[in-house]
Design brief:
4 helices; 109 residues; mainly alpha
Amino acid sequence: MPPADNGGRPGGAPGSNTRHPAGIRIVAAVLAVAALVLGPIGYLNAISAGDDSAAEWYTLGFAASAGLPLLAAAVTTVAGDRRAALCCLALLAWPLIYITAIHLAPGPA
């Protein structure tokens, strides 16, 4: 359907982002920063937690590091910003990086 038939603004090139691209990218950036910060924090808390609450911290860390980039990719895809969506999907590699870094870091002496 042309954009005018689908509730979009008439005019502009098909597939162009006419819905506040700066605002969409700011929302994606906020979600990305939250994923970059909250994922490792949750994982570190899970490692240091006792048997009582480790599962909850692992769940929160994984939800932050995988769920937030997927949410940001969904938001940017709906807004029509493919480049930002691909950048958000690239953040799905972040858990592999920080988990490896945490386990390879030298421990206390």
